[in-house]
Design brief:
This protein is an all-alpha fold and 121 residues long. The protein has seven helices and no strands. The protein has helices at 2-9, 17-20, 25-54, 58-68, 70-78, 86-109, 112-116. The model has no long low-confidence stretch (mean pLDDT 80).
């Protein structure tokens, strides 16, 4: 209250006194309601946009889980009949890597002319 009293007393120093002090209480309440209503509409709009476009939809979550989790991928494709064993999966990958290494060694054992496609003249 002291600041308001000082502003009323020293009005000659304030060039825009009419903007700072309201003429009556209803004008101040009307301005407050306009400001609060505008803020409420802006925040509500932001929340609606965030809810609609900011949060991932269930199908995006499903696709992401299917890409990142081998267990969930098996469950999604085969239902509850599928079982994932990391040891078996690693053994299968190891056998595939060994067969690729063996094929690479067989190719390297051949002469360069045969690998490139040329032949002896």
């Amino acid at each position: 209250m002291r600041l308001g009293h000082e502003l009323r007393q020293g009005y000659r120093f304030l060039k825009n006194r009419q903007r700072i002090l309201f003429g009556n209480r209803s004008e101040a309440v009307r301005d407050l309601l306009k400001t609060a209503g505008g803020s409420f509409v802006l925040i509500a709009g932001y929340i609606i946009v965030l809810r609609e476009f900011g949060a991932p939809t269930p199908d995006v979550i499903y696709d992401f889980r299917k890409l990142t989790s081998p267990d969930f991928k098996l469950f999604a494709t085969h239902g509850e009949l599928a079982e994932f064993s990391l040891g078996v999966s690693n053994r299968v990958k190891g056998v595939q890597a060994e067969s690729e290494d063996l094929a690479r060694k067989v190719r390297k054992a051949q002469p360069a002319e045969t690998r490139i496609g040329g032949g002896a003249y």
